[in-house]
Write the structure tokens for this entry.
Amino acid sequence: MTAKIAGAVLLALLFCVPFAVQSEFWLSFWLLVLMYAFLGQSWNVLGGYGGQFSFGHALFFGIGAFGTAILQVRHGVNAYAAGAIAIALGAIVGGAVGLLVFRYRLRGAYFALVTLAFAEVARILISSFDYTGSGFGMLVPLARGVANFQFEDRRVFYVIAWVLVVIGALVAWWLENSRFGARLMAVRENEDAAQALGIDLIRTKVCAITLSGAMAATVGVFYVQNFLFVDSHLAFGPAMSIEALLVSIIGGMGTMFGPLFGAVVLHALGEAAKQITGNAPGLNLAFYGLLLILALRFLPNGITGLLSRHPARRSPESTHA
Amino acid sequence: MMVNFSLLLPAVLNGVTTGAIYALIALGLTLIYGVLHIINFAHGSLLMLALYAAFFLYTLAGIDPYVAVLILVPAFFVLGYGLQRFVIQPTSHGRDENILLVTLGLAIIIDNLALWLWTSTTRTIDTSYAFEVIDLGFAFIPLPKIIAFFGALAFAALLWALITFTDLGRAIRAVARERDGARLVGIRVEHVYAMTFGIGTAAVAAAACFLLPTFYVTPQVGYAFVLVAFTTVVLGGMGSFVGALSAGLLLGIVESLGGLYLGESLGQLGIFVIFILILLFRPMGLFGARA
């Protein structure tokens, strides 16, 4: 409960950022934090509540980003329609990957590896054709205006990102309080027991990855509207996949505000490290890796576990004698 | 369709020599999987680290990569032992997902520290023998590739002998088969785990030494190898020694022929597609050891 109050307070504070902060730099910084918090929430739906660890969430982010960029640039589709189609595509790809992978009973490390391979296949394919920007990326032409989903004032994007994070928290709340969520968490805790209770494993997991895919694609769409550019390495590369799982794990898997805590703490520490060490490429990511290991070692329930008296996710005790 | 043998044969031979290296890398991975039942995501990053170590031994100390085997194999054995004993084991709390995440964390740290320390510049070494070729009558093969091929096979044979004939090998096989039983008869399981991880890491160091004279090193090179190594292991059957060896050779040939006929970018795609297909269509074989 404490963690939820802390999360709500944090959300309220974050809402005030664009009105309190004048600097363009810090507005962009907190905008990215919110974006990664929602991306982390998308990972959390599948990984935190469903126990299926994806190492290739960049796939869905990239589908959203390239989906909307291609529709706008190559086919002149209106930005809102393109965004909606791209999000639907994210859901469809999520469902298709889920159907394929879960039907063949891939789980644990194999699920992680096969999602990684899917993201790599997408990256290579997107980099290979002119239609998809062939490695140089896609540039959405600048045309400011509400009709084009391009806002002069960055604060509008900020508020949209904030609303997304609120929606993400509501999705998590729904999972914690719905029958579907109960089924999903039962699958996470013990697949065999869940199946014995009559839970349709494949259907439950496919629903979760579909929802997760749509959410990650939403981040991709938002990214493109905000930066008007995307390339295949950025969209489908390992860094985006790692970002998605890192904020969720460090914040606390399977908790409502875990990804938000994770994104805020991770990026605040990352930015602090950058200020101290100067702009050394690689060093901040190495720092993230170190935080991941420290979190696994000392905070098995993430930051949320620190805040709440009752561990949010009780781990099945070690079978490792 | 005409098949041009003067092109095909060198490509196959080239693939076989690369495949022997893949096999050696995969042997380390499959050994670790077979005993600890963990997927070591940092395997590729450790390969990258070993490539840099061999590179700096050559450029700074003038030690030939083939001689560096004698230094790097023990050094990486110690590194692997320490990683398992003091980082992976205490951090994982015995849960499979955690082990995967810890090794992912290690991979992130190693890759990005390398990027920070040595920048993303592609580095190669110039040895006197780099361009020497052997005329086989029907094809020319660069000498370093031949050395790599036989070196990798010799190291694989050594590993096999270690597992088959020594007390340590017997302990490793006992722990792989029945962990609790092994503990009951007095085998120090944690020690065996760390020894296994050390041996797997040492195999990577040997592969790096054989690879460097005909290859290059960048901080990202491990990422490219990690999926190839997983594909090899999965194709050959998790934990299978002979499987990894033959799958490595096969993948080397597939990649070489794919590169010849489809171009480099799409040839790369072939490995991932094989990986996904194998994971999807041979699930029972894959989970046999886990059930």
Observations:
- Chain A has 14 helices and two strands.
- Residues 311-321 of chain A have pLDDT under 50 and may be disordered.
- Chain A touches chain B through 48 residues (CB under 8 Å).
